[in-house]
Each structure stands twice: as structure tokens, then as C-alpha cells.
């Protein structure tokens, strides 16, 4: 049986080691992410894997102490025959904890064909579209996902491979206010989550596609990261420090770029250091809509502004544009 008949229902019923582990997560959410869960409704994205299973359990135990509500949603991607069993596991786990669980389906393969994107990206799009829809209709204050320190390490390397600039190089955020998205387990290694869920006697689900090295992220996980850990066994801690430094610096720059606008005038740009100009560009582009602004294109935009290449237009992901004009830089959308 994947889910034991009887599970601990509160922090007090856990071994002290695991009760302290749950409280550590609670402090991380409150102190590092700046999120107060008291009185809130939290939706957990539950795949049935060990990470999201641990997340659901931790938030369940914390909810009894901090007085917030936890619900779960599972999305069946319809990519594997065993996905039916994944959904059944999620229902059983939530039933054992008296947590409401919604199970939805999406034809991810069809979405990938329609959008001419990979299955991994299509699955991610489907999940986050569902999260956004449920957050609005729930309504839920926050959506919690199970990314952990191993995922953060992969993300840092993936961003480096793609050419991401600072501060994005420090990895995914722990809190995304625009989407109400929180990652409570972000600085915890997967091995800790495995130990926690194993101790509770739960047999989580494994996704066989995680071993498919045709997927770039899997090659990073299965081939590159083991080599790095061989050179530096404390690589996880290095990534955690990088993330904390990046968060502090991002908070600082956010205070300087807190009022994005459609037009950055020449005088504002002349008075700003290049570091600030680059972040002003990014802030204005972020205000236009979703889509990551690559550092290389931001540098080219800044160079064009310095050279006063009036009429030059720069394209950014999400069909966003930045246009050099006689009075400054104008940001907008091409659709």
C-alpha cells in the first residue's frame, strides 16, 4: 500500500527531528520569503513524487500550528499509462490527511504539437495555467510547489548554459508575488525529503521520464551535477549561498526600479549608472508582460541607446519590444 493506514496528524505526533524539520520550513517561508500563511488558503501542486509529497505533508503539519488551509491539485498529463496510478496515489494521500484534492487532466502531447514546443515545456505551461485558474477561482492566496535545492542547483546551471545574467543567475525565486507562487522547500536537499517521506512509510510515485537523457534538464541532473559534486561535495551549500546573495541584491534593485513605466526618458537614463539602466530596462519589460529578458539583448539595447540609434527595435520573449526614440526608450508589445 502506497499510503499507510495511519499517518501522524500533527507536529506533536512526529519524531522531534522531523517536527523541527517542518518548523524550519515554516521559518524559511516567513523570514526568508516574507510570506505570512496565517489565515490563508494554500494550494499545493501535487504530482505524487517525493518532493511534492513532502511539501504537502510539511504544510499540512504546519497548518495545524499556524492556522491556514491546505488543498491540493494533481494534473494528469496523459503521457504515461501509469499516470492513472499517480492520480490515485494523490487522492489516497490527501484522503489520509483529510485534505481536499482536485484531479485534472491535460493533453500535454497535443499542446506540445500545437505550440511546437517540447513535452517538458508544454507540461509546465499546462500546470501553471491550471494553478493560475484555480488560484483565481478558489480563491487561493498562494500556490505552493515542491522545488528543492537539487532543483535549484539544476536551475542555476541551466541558466548559466542559456546565458542568463545577474541576478537571474542565482536561480528561481522562492516567492513570485505576481503568481502568488511559493517554494517552501527550496533550500532543502532532496535527500532530506526522501528521508522524511520514507520515515512516514509512504511509497511515493516515480516518473520514469526523469531518467530520459534526451531532455536537457535530465542530462544536467544525471551527468553534469554528479561531476560538479565530485569536485565540490558542498556544491549544494554554495548554491544556497548564491541564492541568498541574489535575493538580497534583487530586493535592493527592486527598490530602485519600483515604478516601471512605458517610456524611459533620456535624462533619467543619462543620470543612471549602466547597472541601474539595465535593471530599469528589465523592470519596464517585466511590466509589459511575462517573458524573460535575456541579459545579452539588454546589453545590446543599452549600447543602441548610448549610440542614439533612433528607430532601432529590440524583440524580447513574450512578444515584447523596446524601441529607441529621440526622447528615450519606449516599451510595448508587438501583438
Automatic annotation (TrEMBL):
It is an enzyme of class 6 (ligase). It catalyses: cytidine(34) in tRNA(Ile2) + L-lysine + ATP = lysidine(34) in tRNA(Ile2) + AMP + diphosphate + H(+). The keyword Disulfide bond does not apply. GO terms for cellular component: cytoplasm. GO terms for molecular function: ATP binding; tRNA(Ile)-lysidine synthase activity. Belongs to the tRNA(Ile)-lysidine synthase family. NCBIfam families: lysidine_TilS_N. This is tRNA(Ile)-lysidine synthase. It comes from Pseudodesulfovibrio indicus.
